[in-house]
């Protein structure tokens, strides 16, 4: 049992949000931030923030706040963002194309190493600096280019099949955009995105705010 | 001060996840689920779940569990998903097109009422059942069709301008996909999606799981 295994999933879930917030603070030129300031921006209880961050070591100074650059660097390291993961996107429909053009992937240090599709019309077309490759060569290319992360952007009906192919090819983790519950071996971590969560939260705020009522202003969400 | 204002943002954030989980349970034919079962699926402490749900009333029976259909219906109502919001997407690049084709919007009861773009080449083209309309008519169409939610899918450089136009047009809420921090009046709730959160979480699990180590299997994420 290693130490990291005792970190709760809820804490791990919050780390990327801390990281993003610290990146924003860096962009704004803020050098020191208190847990109260972080709490206000993230709408997380400051006590919870202190508890979460204390778990990973000593990043702040009592009564002063957290050093933004240092904390950002440390959380980035904890998140493994210093490891330059190689990523493959499978499925070059609109969603796949949007992801291939999404600059956040590169900004986090991830490298788009391959794009796959099964459609002969799409195979060979250019997306940014890459050409779409035939999914028939998936296993070969994943091994050759040392690709660790597979991004599933195919229609729901094909998602499990692609996941199976990725697993067989030795992928280490999966980022899934298909609205299905994937079955993958327990040793392969995966993250499924579901846009309905953000849209539902917005619906909640619309339902419970009247146009004249600014009370919820501090509760605006960034997922 | 109305009652709903005392619900914490953290609780509101979890409601859409409860809703999605209950939808999955419904699809699987599960009729009753304990807070432990929900906790296992969502990786949320069962105690936290009981606390969150108790806030909204009595949905379960001690020692039996929650009635899935009833709880799903109630949370859907709390989230305002029974209100049939009209939605407009602004920006018909790959992301906008992916969102226009995203079935989750309709599944939640939202109605895609308009699609806007500024590019003359794109205006007039068909996306599903709709035609892309000229953003010059944004205000007019939003009023005419009673559109409450604007989805920003334009490049970052144009996002604030579009947000300003939406606000001037009387939009009630904004779902933002541009990687910028929007400034909108406090009376307009907005949700910003940031895919880097999911990708960072995946990076964390890859960093802290070895290929032989299945220990993190219960911690797979669905954001």
Characterization of the model:
The structure is a homodimer. Chain A is of the alpha/beta class. The first copy, chain A, has 2 domains: about 5-80, Winged helix-like DNA-binding domain superfamily/Winged helix DNA-binding domain (Arc Repressor Mutant, subunit A); about 85-190, 3-Layer(aba) Sandwich (Rossmann fold). Chain A is built from 9 helices and 11 strands. In chain A, the strands form 2 sheets. A 7-stranded mixed beta sheet of chain A has the order 6-7-5-4-8-9-10, with helices on both faces. In chain A, strands 1-3-2 form a 3-stranded antiparallel beta sheet. Chain A is elongated. Mean pLDDT of chain A is about 85; it is low at about 1-5 and about 210-223. At the A-B interface, helix 1, helix 5, helix 6, strand 9 and strand 10 of A face helix 1, helix 5, helix 6, strand 9 and strand 10 of B. Strand 11 (about 220) of chain A pairs parallel with strand 10 (about 190) of chain B, so a sheet runs across the interface.
């Amino acid at each position: 049992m290693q130490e990291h295994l005792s970190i709760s999933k809820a804490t791990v879930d919050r780390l990327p949000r801390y990281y993003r917030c610290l990146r924003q603070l860096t962009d704004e030129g803020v050098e020191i931030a208190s847990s109260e300031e972080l709490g206000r921006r993230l709408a997380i209880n400051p006590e919870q923030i202190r508890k979460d961050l204390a778990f990973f070591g000593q990043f702040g100074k009592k009564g002063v706040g957290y050093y933004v650059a240092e904390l950002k660097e440390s959380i980035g390291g904890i998140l493994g963002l210093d490891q330059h993961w190689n990523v493959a996107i499978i499925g070059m429909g609109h969603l796949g194309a949007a992801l291939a053009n999404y600059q956040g992937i590169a900004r986090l240090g991830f490298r788009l190493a391959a794009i796959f599709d099964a459609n002969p019309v799409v195979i060979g077309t250019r997306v940014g600096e890459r050409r779409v490759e035939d999914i028939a060569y998936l296993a070969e290319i994943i091994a050759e280019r040392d690709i660790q992360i597979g991004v599933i952007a195919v229609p729901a009906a094909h998602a499990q099949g692609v996941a199976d192919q990725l697993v067989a090819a030795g992928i280490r983790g999966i980022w899934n955009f298909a609205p299905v519950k994937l079955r993958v071996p327990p040793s392969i971590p995966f993250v499924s995105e579901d846009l309905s969560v953000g849209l539902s939260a917005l619906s909640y705020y619309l339902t419970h705010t009247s146009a004249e009522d600014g009370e919820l202003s501090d509760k605006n969400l960034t997922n």
